[in-house]
């Protein structure tokens, strides 16, 4: 089927929209022709000619001779008979690679007379001694042709002459006549410069304080003009906008911004599914160079089986999917026969709607560089994921009956975009592809004058040449979008006037009704922008989508959307460090591993077959050993999101997660292959020399989850949204319950209920009945150890026995898996959904990765729908909100608290606990629970940690204990010491800096000695848990105890639902300033830590430092009153040499910066002593915010 070529009215309409308001004088009357360049034996950059981008037409009356002779200084005058266009070869000692010879195409005869007023005689006569005087009738300006030459070789791609990019901060903005004049400071040197915006750039929204990139060269006076014809300006370059979003901007600026704010997983259409599958099939064919029907059919089947979940969503069978994909990919073999070759074939037509009428082109794709390559460009403020990057050979020819001419071959690295829908004019596709040419030029270091669009249904390829006018318009649209997004990023700050952070609606009824973002657009228009509209073309659809919303609904959405945005800013504030800071600078802050190489000896394990990100596994080590350095130092931990880059040229080559972290190695799972050979070749092109590949591994702040959360919020308010939850959560409708007595009678006939509820106390039984009688929801408020995990497990078993299904969810993987580990013996199906790398090993058997790969939709449905229990983490904001303004605005308020305060009758309290002995329970009772917590039995109340062996009893050898008086370690091990605070002030045990994090080496050593003493006394490893609120301390402890595989070392956040016979807590902070930061002021975390212990609780810290805040001073007074305080004598940490760890004291080689000296950590800035509320006994009473604390521990 012939391709639908865009007609002139279509292109005129698109260009009018894209270039509206631009200087029309810079639009060329005819598209520029490909400039013929001399073949080069090297790829060194050349100074661009002043004539670049313009060439006289073949019938021009004004011949530019200097253009014709451009580059003559590089011609090989001593080798005229061979090829006079070849630059002089180097005679250096080094033997360069033999360059490909190029057969010169004849220059077209110019029949037009030359005007004397336009003719430059000097230019005309320059080099006349080499003209071919024997061939004057043919073309007297053409040098003598070689006698015999066969074949035509493509000119190699030119090395990309990267534009000068100067990063500046705007100090002042003023309008002078029709110019906008910016006074700026260069960010690196602090030099003052002037930027003058002319033509359409005058309308750019540039403000004081903005960061801008200036692309072009300043003159000797420090001034640069940015006009319609030269140079570019990028506003807010740290905001990377996708090329896909930007390509849609000419139609509607609002839609791509809304798509970034609200990311829905429900926008799933058959066309999208088929398109993705055909993309993948073609990418595999290109990579494997196999295009036969059998190969395509096999991989189509494989891809369909891998994407069965998508078929379930669109309700299509495997056979139907095969037929659909086969039909859409039927042209792939024809494509390969036509276009996959070393040189263009006669039928490999390359369509170019911008070419002149007498121009034709042929295409050969000779090499595949990459597929699904993710490229970030802080230079242009763009990013994109490219379908493919290819090496293309293009044959250009001009049809002229009067001139015999050969095709001119040229080789280019080009973006190759695959479009599987119905062939359309593709104006958005052209814009997207054109933007990709900028990204590839930066990534590969070669000139990319055009890109390729392949429409699978037309079986033709369209060439998209770069056009400054279109690029200028697209960059202008990008700057406008970035300005709106930046307004959102400054939302909540002090401002005189709240500006809209979304462009206005386009009010086009036809386009708006078909827009996939219509519901979201209308919701923001009503709730956030408060638009009143009764007369516009979209007034009716606006009313249809929003008339059901009450004022309270609008207020709720606006408030919570704003709070989400504030937290979103905090989550993404480090992203720009990847390109604004060197790897060493970022490593000093603990957010990067610098100078890394891939360990070729590493043997990766099996990659999960359902992972979307984890496609490849690599182990990184230091390129050269750094004494005392450890990967455990810093903010990066197992499970953290990371990016892999090569500084400074190749940013974000791959993205993924840390799988394993040791002092010497980092194992990562990433989404993209890291071929050192390919990367080295690319670096050689970029830098002009062959150098070693050194990677940097950066912590990445992924913020995409916030867009999902915002979508969950928006779904409540759509006209076809979740009405029931809107009533319950927003309107706070009273929850309904069935009669509990009737329910109780019915439950007696369910054997599973009778079995699981036997032995429960009255409070637990009441919680079971309330939950099972709820029509809407029930709230179980359980203090630590009161049996919430037991009740949840019993409820799941009972509900399944009643023939119903269960969704089990929590905000941490640890909490979900704790429940599943208690359902290991269940006789019903369980499906665990989530990142397999983060699932507890004991719960992985419930994941799809551990099951046979289904081959039909029915098999998959059986795996995902048949299990009555589905378990997963819920997408939520961390319960510990980081942004102060969001916290102040109420983002910390949990749904549990909101519902429990509105409807107390829905809450069931659990007060009898079965975990802690009475001493440990008293600690939390006095500080938090107002003596409401009770031991469930006498056995629990009197429990103690029994030591099977007497390691520290009797007379001790000097190698074991050097204590002069009584042994402090023996006191700790005593079975009568159930709660002990170990005061380290006399040692001393100061905290220390690791980058901008904090750790305490002495406390870590003490923890190790205490742990070893317990183990030598017969306590089992799985009876001991070690905790700290500080991630850096956790990493240090994990390092020195790495041989003790069964000892769990946890933060408070990861300990939910866990308990151990003995808990040892390192409080870390110890300094003369009394600075403890924010973590130790968070009683939710502290309380969770205390209440993990069953029989023995040991807390190690500095009494003097911790006493500086009111809340902790109450805790220390209680410890004093009960006689639970143990003050260590000086040097107590070295009195037991036999228990010392050889791994203690790992340090970071990084020097502390001034900023590091004043910052404890990202999450915990050092600050002056803050005024804190006075703590009264029974702090829970009258303080509803602490009700979440009660529910925080399990």
From TrEMBL:
Catalysis: reaction(s): ATP + H2O = ADP + phosphate + H(+)
InterPro entries named among the record's database cross-references: Coronavir_polyprotein_1ab, DNA2/NAM7-like_C, DNA2/NAM7_AAA_11, DNA_replication_fac_Dna2_N, P-loop_NTPase, PDDEXK-like_dom_sf, SF1_C_Upf1
CDD domains: DNA2_N-like, SF1_C_Upf1
Domain (DNA2/NAM7 helicase helicase) ranges: 760-850
Keywords: 4Fe-4S, ATP-binding, DNA damage, DNA repair, DNA replication, DNA-binding, Endonuclease, Helicase, Hydrolase, Iron, Iron-sulfur, Metal-binding, Multifunctional enzyme, Nuclease, Nucleotide-binding, Nucleus
Listed Pfam families: AAA_11, AAA_12, Dna2
A GO BP entry: DNA replication
Cofactor(s) essential for the protein: [4Fe-4S] cluster
Enzyme class, first EC level, given as a word: hydrolase
EC numbers for this chain: 3.6.4.12
Compartments it resides in: Nucleus
Principal cellular location given in the protein's record: nucleus
Region described as Disordered: 22-64, 85-109, 1145-1167
Superkingdom: Eukaryota
One GO molecular-function entry: endonuclease activity
SUPFAM superfamilies found in the cross-reference section: P-loop containing nucleoside triphosphate hydrolases
Gene3D superfamilies noted in UniProt: 3.90.320.10, P-loop containing nucleotide triphosphate hydrolases
GO CC aspect terms: nucleus
Comp. bias intervals (Polar residues): 38-64
Domain DNA replication factor Dna2 N-terminal: 188-392
All residue ranges annotated as the DNA2/NAM7 helicase-like C-terminal domain in the record: 891-1103
Protein family (similarity comment): Belongs to the DNA2/NAM7 helicase family.
Name under which the protein is recorded: DNA replication ATP-dependent helicase/nuclease DNA2
Organism field: Suillus discolor
Phylogenetic classification of the source organism: Eukaryota, Fungi, Dikarya, Basidiomycota, Agaricomycotina
């Amino acid at each position: 089927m012939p391709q639908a070529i865009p007609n002139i009215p279509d292109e005129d309409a698109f260009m009018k929209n894209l270039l509206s308001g631009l200087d029309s004088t810079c639009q060329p009357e005819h598209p520029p022709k490909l400039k013929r360049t001399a073949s080069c034996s090297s790829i060194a950059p050349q100074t661009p000619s002043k004539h670049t981008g313009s060439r006289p037409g073949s019938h021009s009356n004004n011949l530019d001779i200097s253009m014709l002779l451009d580059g003559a200084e590089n011609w090989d005058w001593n080798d005229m008979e061979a090829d006079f266009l070849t630059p002089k070869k180097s005679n250096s000692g080094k033997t360069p690679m033999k360059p490909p010879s190029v057969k010169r195409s004849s220059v077209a005869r110019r029949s037009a007379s030359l005007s004397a007023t336009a003719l430059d005689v000097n230019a005309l006569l320059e080099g006349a001694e080499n003209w071919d005087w024997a061939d004057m009738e043919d073309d007297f300006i053409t040098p003598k042709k070689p006698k015999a030459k066969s074949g035509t070789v493509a000119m190699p791609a030119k090395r990309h002459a990267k534009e000068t990019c100067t990063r500046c901060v705007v100090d002042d903005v003023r309008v002078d006549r029709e110019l906008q004049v910016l006074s700026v400071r260069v960010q690196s040197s602090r030099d003052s410069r002037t930027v003058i915006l002319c033509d359409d750039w005058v309308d750019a929204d540039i403000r004081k304080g903005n960061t801008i990139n200036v692309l072009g060269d300043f003159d000797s006076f420090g001034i640069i003009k940015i006009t319609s014809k030269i140079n570019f300006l990028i506003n807010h370059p740290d905001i990377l906008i996708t090329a896909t979003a930007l390509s849609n901007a000419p139609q509607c600026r609002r839609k791509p911004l809304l798509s970034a704010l609200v990311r829905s997983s429900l926008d799933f259409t058959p066309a999208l599914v088929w398109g993705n599958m055909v993309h993948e099939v073609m990418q595999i064919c290109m990579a494997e160079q196999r295009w036969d029907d059998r190969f395509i059919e096999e991989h189509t089947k494989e891809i369909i089986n891998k994407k069965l979940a998508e078929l379930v969503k669109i309700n299509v069978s495997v056979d139907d999917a095969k037929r659909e994909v086969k039909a859409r990919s039927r042209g792939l073999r024809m494509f390969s026969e036509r276009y996959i070759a070393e040189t263009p074939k006669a039928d490999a037509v390359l369509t170019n709607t911008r070419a002149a009428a007498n121009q034709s082109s042929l295409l050969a794709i000779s090499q595949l560089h990459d597929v699904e390559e993710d490229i970030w460009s802080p230079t242009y403020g763009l990013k994109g994921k490219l379908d493919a990057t290819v090496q293309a050979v293009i044959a250009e020819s001009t049809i002229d009956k009067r001139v015999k001419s050969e095709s001119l071959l040229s080789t280019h690295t080009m973006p190759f975009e695959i479009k599987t829908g119905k062939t359309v004019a593709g104006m958005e596709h052209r814009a997207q592809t054109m933007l990709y040419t900028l990204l590839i030029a930066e990534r590969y270091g070669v000139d990319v004058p055009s890109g390729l669009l392949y429409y699978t249904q037309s079986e033709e390829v369209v060439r998209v040449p770069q056009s400054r006018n279109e690029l200028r318009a697209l960059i202008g649209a990008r700057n406008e979008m970035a300005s709106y997004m930046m307004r959102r990023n400054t939302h909540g700050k002090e401002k005189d006037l709240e500006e809209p952070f979304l462009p206005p609606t386009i009010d086009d009824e036809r386009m708006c009704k078909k827009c996939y973002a219509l519901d979201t657009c209308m919701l923001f228009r009503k709730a956030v922008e408060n638009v009143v509209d009764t007369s516009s073309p979209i007034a009716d659809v606006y009313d249809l989508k929003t008339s059901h919303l009450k004022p309270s609904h609008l207020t709720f959405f606006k408030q919570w959307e704003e709070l989400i945005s504030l937290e979103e800013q905090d989550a993404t504030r480090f992203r720009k460090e990847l390109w604004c800071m060197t790897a060493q600078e970022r490593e000093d802050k603990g957010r990067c591993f610098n100078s890394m190489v891939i360990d070729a000896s590493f043997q990766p394990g099996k990659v999960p077959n359902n992972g979307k990100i984890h496609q490849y596994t690599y182990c990184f080590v230091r390129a050269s050993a750094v004494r005392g350095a450890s990967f455990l130092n810093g903010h990066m931990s197992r499970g953290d999101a990371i990016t892999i880059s090569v500084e400074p040229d190749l940013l974000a080559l791959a993205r993924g997660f840390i799988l394993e972290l040791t002092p010497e190695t980092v194992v990562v799972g990433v989404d993209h292959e890291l071929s050192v050979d390919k990367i080295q070749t690319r670096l050689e092109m970029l830098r002009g020399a062959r150098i070693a590949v050194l990677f940097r591994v950066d912590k990445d702040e992924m913020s995409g989850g916030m867009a999902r959360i915002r979508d969950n919020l928006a779904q409540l308010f759509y006209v076809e949204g979740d009405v029931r939850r809107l009533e319950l959560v927003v309107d706070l409708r009273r929850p309904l319950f069935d009669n509990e007595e009737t329910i109780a009678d019915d439950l007696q006939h369910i054997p599973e209920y009778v079995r699981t509820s036997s032995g429960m106390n009255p409070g637990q039984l009441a919680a079971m009945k309330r939950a099972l009688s709820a029509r809407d929801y029930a709230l179980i408020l359980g203090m630590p150890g009161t049996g919430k995990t037991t009740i949840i497990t019993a409820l799941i078993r009972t509900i399944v026995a009643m023939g119903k299904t269960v969704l089990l969810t929590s905000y941490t993987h640890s909490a979900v898996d704790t429940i599943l580990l208690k359902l290991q013996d269940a006789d019903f199906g369980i499906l665990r959904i989530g990142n397999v790398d983060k699932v507890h090993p004991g719960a992985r058997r419930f994941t799809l990765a551990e099951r046979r790969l289904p081959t039909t939709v029915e098999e998959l449905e059986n795996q995902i729908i048949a299990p009555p229990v589905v378990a997963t983490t819920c997408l939520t904001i961390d319960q510990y909100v980081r942004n102060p303004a969001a916290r102040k605005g109420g983002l910390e308020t949990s749904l549990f608290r909101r519902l429990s305060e509105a409807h107390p009758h829905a809450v069931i309290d659990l007060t009898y606990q079965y975990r802690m002995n009475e001493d440990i329970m008293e600690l939390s009772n006095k500080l938090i629970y107002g003596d409401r917590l009770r031991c469930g039995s006498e056995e629990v109340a009197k429990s103690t940690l029994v030591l099977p062996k007497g390691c520290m009893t009797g007379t001790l050898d000097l190698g074991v204990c050097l204590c002069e008086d009584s042994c402090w370690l023996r006191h700790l091990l005593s079975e009568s010491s159930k709660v002990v605070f170990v005061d380290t002030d006399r040692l001393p045990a100061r905290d220390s800096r690791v980058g901008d994090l904090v750790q305490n080496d002495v406390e870590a050593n003490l923890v190790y000695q205490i742990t070893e003493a317990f183990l030598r006394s017969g306590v089992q490893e799985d009876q001991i848990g070690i905790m700290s609120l500080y991630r850096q301390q956790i990493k240090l402890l994990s390092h020195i105890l790495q041989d003790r595989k069964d000892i769990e070392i946890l933060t408070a956040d990861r300990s939910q639902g866990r308990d151990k016979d003995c808990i040892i807590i390192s409080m870390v902070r110890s300094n003369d300033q009394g600075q403890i930061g924010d973590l130790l002021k968070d009683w939710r975390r502290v309380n969770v830590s205390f209440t993990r212990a069953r029989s023995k609780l040991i807390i190690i810290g500095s009494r003097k430092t911790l006493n500086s805040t009111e809340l902790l001073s109450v805790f220390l007074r209680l410890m004093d009153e009960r006689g639970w305080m143990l003050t260590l004598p000086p040097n107590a940490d070295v009195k037991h040499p036999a228990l010392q760890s050889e791994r203690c004291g790992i340090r970071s080689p990084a020097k502390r910066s001034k900023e590091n000296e004043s910052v404890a950590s990202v999450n915990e800035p050092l600050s002056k002593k803050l005024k804190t509320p006075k703590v009264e006994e029974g702090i829970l009473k009258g303080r509803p915010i602490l009700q979440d604390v009660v529910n925080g521990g399990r």
